[in-house]
Design goal:
three-stranded antiparallel β-sheet; alpha+beta; binds FE2/S2 (inorganic) cluster; 3 strands; 127 residues
Length: 127
C-alpha cells in the first residue's frame, strides 16, 4: 500500500489557495516546535462567511496537503462552521494520513482557529 493517498499527493503537488491576502480579516500563524514547520492562514470574511482563504506553509508535504485541503473545506462556509473543523476531518478528506503525520493536519486546524480568533478579536461584535 502506498504511504500517501492520491489525494495527499495531489494536494501536495498542486496545493490550492496558496498565497497571501492583503488586508485579511483574520490571520493566524502556528508552528510545531518538534519538526519546526510553520503554517499561516489568511481569511477574508464578509457577513460571517469566509469568502476567501489563502495559506503559506513552510513545512512537510503532509502539512502542505493538509493546509490546502483545509482551505477548500472552509471556503464559502460560515465562520461558526470553520471553527469546528477538526484535524481529523482534514485527514479524512485527504483519505487518511499515516499516524506519525497526523500532527501535520493538527497544524491546519490550529492555523484556522488562530485566524478566526484574530478575526473575533478585531470584530468583537461578531462573537
Ligand atoms: Fe511537521 Fe509535517 S512533519 S507538520
Amino acid at each position: 500500500m502506498a504511504l500517501y493517498s492520491e489525494k495527499v499527493m495531489d494536494h501536495f503537488r498542486n496545493p490550492r489557495n496558496v498565497g497571501v491576502i492583503e488586508n485579511a480579516d483574520g490571520v493566524g500563524e502556528v508552528g510545531n516546535a518538534k519538526c519546526g514547520d510553520i503554517m499561516k492562514m489568511y481569511l477574508k470574511i464578509d457577513d460571517d462567511v469566509i469568502t476567501d482563504v489563502k495559506f503559506e506553509t513552510f513545512g512537510c508535504g503532509s502539512a502542505i496537503a493538509s493546509s490546502s485541503m483545509a482551505t477548500e473545506l472552509i471556503k464559502g462556509k460560515p465562520v461558526e462552521e470553520a471553527m469546528k473543523l477538526t484535524n481529523k476531518a482534514v485527514a479524512e478528506a485527504l483519505d487518511g494520513l499515516p499516524d506519525y503525520k497526523m500532527h501535520c493536519s493538527v497544524l491546519a486546524e490550529e492555523a484556522i482557529q488562530a485566524a478566526l480568533e484574530d478575526y473575533y478579536k478585531k470584530n468583537p461584535q461578531h462573537k
